[in-house]
Amino acid sequence: MGILNVTPDSFSDGGLFLDRDAALRHAEMMMEAGADVIDIGGESTRPGADRVSEAEELDRVLPVIEAIRKRLPIAISVDTSTAAVMAAAFEFNVEIINDVRALSRPGALAACGQSEALLVLMHMQGTPSTMQDAPYYADLFGDLNQFFEKRIEACGLAGIASDRLILDPGFGFGKEAHHNFSLVAGLHRFAHHGLPMMVGLSRKRSIAGIARDVIAASVAGHLLAIQAGASIVRVHDVEPMVSAINVLRAVRECEG
Ligand code: 9MG
């Protein structure tokens, strides 16, 4: 999954893709590099980020969704927590809603219940403005598993079938580096939910904090996550990620 942030303050790409044509070109580049999905987001979720208005988020993402849908043969994911944005995105038959708040904002469950899109339920402790203020877990895997159970149950009550759900531990969302790396190592401990898992480590602080080459380090982290059970990786740098996945596939094909 290639990341397309259409925010002015995104921590990794500095809002390069606010302009619709630049966004389209970048999406096309990621598609040509091998991305299967483009994840379009108009509300920054970096630590300390403020909320944007619904109108502003719609203004940022809708023209880009429309342009990509018209011009590129690629699946679209929309990174949003806002029910009105979800509803508007469904008019373009987007394939995935990627919600870092796991459909907890008012109206989100109901909006998604009206669609057939796949839904990413991500774990976050706190909110983007406070989440990195000394995050603490009494039982990291127990807390996340309980969270996933509750959100899967809430989806079921809203009439959303569990085969539409994807789980994401939310690297960097209310987690210290040691939490993030423990989650990569223990990703299999979420496998009993029987749902696909997605991860996003791309250029995040825990990665940048231990490596001079943040792109190589992101690829390595994602590859380890795939080995541990992830089936979707959300990345800025598609080409090196796809190259690494090709090697993994070749090795797996030759496994005895
Ligand atoms: C929007 N966004 C930023 N980081 C993310 C992550 O790790 N997972 C998901 N699902 N979305 C993310």
3D structure, described in words:
The chain is α/β, with parallel strands linked by helices and 256 residues long. The protein has a single domain, classed as Dihydropteroate synthase-like (TIM Barrel), CATH 3.20.20. It is built from nine helices and eight strands. The chain has helices at 20-32, 54-71, 83-90, 108-113, 140-157, 177-185, 205-208, 214-227, 238-253, and strands spanning 2-5, 37-41, 75-79, 96-99, 118-122, 165-168, 198-199, 232-233. The strands form two sheets. It has a six-stranded parallel sheet, covered by helices on one side. 9-methylguanine (9MG) binds at residues 41, 45, 79, 98, 100, 120, 122, 168, 170-171, 198, 200, 234. The site of 9-methylguanine has 13 residues, from strand 5.
User: How many domains in all?
Assistant: 1
Cα(first) to Cα(last) distance is 30 Å
Low-confidence stretches: none
Name the ligand types.
9-methylguanine
> In angstroms, what is the radius of gyration?
17 Å
Give, in order, the helices and strands: EHEHEHEHEHEHEHHEH
CATH class membership: Alpha Beta
Shape: globular
**CATH superfamily, called what?**
Dihydropteroate synthase-like
- The main sheet orders its strands as 1-2-3-4-5-6
Number of helices: 9
Q: Can you name the CATH architecture?
A: Alpha-Beta Barrel
Label the structural class: alpha/beta
What name does CATH use for the topology? TIM Barrel
> How much helical structure, as a percent, in the residues?
40-55%
**What percentage of amino acids are in beta strands?**
5-15%
